[in-house]
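Fill-in record for IS701 family transposase.
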Amino acid sequence: MPLTYRVAHQQEINNILRTWRFPLYFSKPVMNHMVHFLDGVMTRGFSGTLTDIHRESCHSQDRRTLSHFLTHGKWNEQHLMRIIQQQSWESIKREAKHTQEPIFVIIDDTVCRKTKPSSQALSPMQGTDFHYSHTEGKSVWGHAVVQEFIRCGEKAFPYAFSRYESEQNSKIDIACELLSMVPKSSFSTYVLMDTWYPAQSVLETCALSGFHVISGIKTNRIIYPYGIRQSIKEFASHIHKEDTDLVTVGHASYHVYRYEGKLNFIENAVVLLCWDATQPMTLQTMRAFLSTDVSLSNEQILTYYSKRWAIETYFRTMKSNFSFNGYQIRSTVAIKRFWTLLSFTAMFCSVTGHGDILTGLRSWQNKKTESWIEFVYYEAKAGTQLDLIKNQLQAA
């Protein structure tokens, strides 16, 4: 008979899930799968496959039960998503109350690259298409996901996501939907985005929630300096170095020109035209930034915008440590559930790592190593047969 002992770190995971009231939403077998999923994903060297999860978590059930759990299991991933949002938001509110710093809601997208199947493939991965990858600078085959991330100070948490399908919806529509999920609060809240997202509908959604926007902005957007209608890049051609202020953010300095006034769809906002101080002031080296909070200084706007980098590091962490793009699942239902579970794992690591995903991940990896050593030690000390221990460790 195989051992049914649950090692210490798995029991600790299970206890945390219980404090988060998982038994109200999920059956005992579903919770068991979730514990093993978290354990397997948080293992060093996880490659994204269900085989890895089964092996590294020493799951006593057949490997195919994990596939069934994702594709046909009777559980609601929306309940899990709400728990992610609840735990992330409560953690961010505590940090904002403690530090009195603003809350940042960050929107961005990434591509999970996949191999394009041949025309003869009998069961290709569902929902794939060509998507532009900013990292690779070209269109690649795979899935695109729009992610919402929240941050306060040095603490950051995943909040929500949605898969992008060009035939079903736009990234702008998804961004509006994700932003509408964020609760209104008494804390100053800024939505950070790159140049793709500050469309009229996104700005209106943020305004309705009482959020300010700080974003990159395309240089063909229209402004009205001195009442004259012209694009940002047209206006920038008339700016000289003596018209700018030197602003330092972190270790970099920038020549910054501040425009405050009307834009299309906005009655009053700030647009910063910025050049790296180490480069010539040309249209090719200029970047423009939008802030709907006109009370902020140039330095504050650029410093706040730099907080957006947290979502880039999140994507890198998800792909390198949680193998976010390494899955080999075919159905869109299972993929959405897999992504939700990965997002939950990231939130779990962030919360238990005091706001830092990698700190939490390393802590659980160390706990896992220690608890398996303890398991082998005490079972051997109790006289358990070696074959049974090997079977539990799936080393037989």
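KEY FINDING: Confidence is low (pLDDT under 50) at residues 1-5.
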